[in-house]
Amino acid sequence: MPTADLVTRRTLLYAVGAGAGAGTLAGCVDQAETDETGTTDDDDDGDTDDGSTDDADPGAEPDADESNADDETTDSTLEPGTQIRFDGQTSGWVGLGPSTIENEENPTLTLEVGETYEIGWTRGNGQAHNIELRDRNDEVVDDYRTDLTDAEEPDDQRLEFEASEELAYYVCDPHAASMRGEIRIDGTEPSADDRGRHDDDSDGGTETGDAFSIDPGTTIVFDGQTAAWEGLEPAVIGGEENPTLALEEGETYRIGWEGSDGLHHNIELWDRDDEVVDDYRTDVTDEPGDDQFLEFEASDELAYYVCAPHAASMRGEILLE
């Protein structure tokens, strides 16, 4: 709805509300003059006591406090022209503005089709991030994407866009499993088929007790942090530190890391004696790329995935199913 129409409608509602309020006040004064006890006489007239807060009108609009409370617990449609701002954290996008998404992680954004908005991140954690708008097939829509940067207060990470039915997600490309939020148009929800690709129970694995069962052929991705391996993909391990991986014996997987804290890391697959299995190891580096991924076959020799320079903290267990 155009902003001008919203303003006109609100002005009319305020005028009507003010008139109704004045009429109610006059009725209350007249009643007070005829009732020396100061109580409302509900028996002598057939008029509804609109001035009383005890008798709720089922057709009335909720008061401001109730309306605000409802807005905080539901996905309210954002006003056209809204500037949507995030804090870029590897574990998720944290809302900064508008107030309806403040401190929310990966909040769902409900937009009006055909209207213009601005989205971006103005604060970061020193890791390389960007922001992209994608469709249900995880393809970037109309080249809505920014360049990667590790700036903590970037000024070039904003996109102005028109809301369309193609839009489905806002995403950080390097951390797409954890930094991903949904876009809805006019409050419509995606179908179960559309959502399935990113459900924790269908995207590469499932959580089973203290372990995460990973589907064969899955690429397992971590953020290399000295304190621990932080799960990025598949979605089921997103944000988990040193998650235990349950693999199917004889099946092939791919494991590696991206991002980092600027220190030197690598990844190795060890047995119970802390020996590297079948030379599954990468070179130590502070600039990870495709060379930091290992394709391997799950066997009963495997026990741990480890960063050799930080083996005490960057170590996760591998179980065989």
Automatic annotation (TrEMBL):
Acidic residues bias (residue ranges): 32-74
Ranges that cross the membrane: none
Keyword Membrane in annotation: no
Biased composition (Basic and acidic residues): 186-200
Region (Disordered): 22-105, 186-217
GO molecular function annotation: copper ion binding; electron transfer activity
Domain Blue (type 1) copper: residue ranges: 110-185, 247-320
Keywords, comma-separated and alphabetical: Copper, Metal-binding
Domain of life: Archaea
Record protein name field: Copper binding protein, plastocyanin/azurin family
InterPro entries: BlueCu_1 (IPR000923), Cupredoxin (IPR008972), TAT_signal (IPR006311)
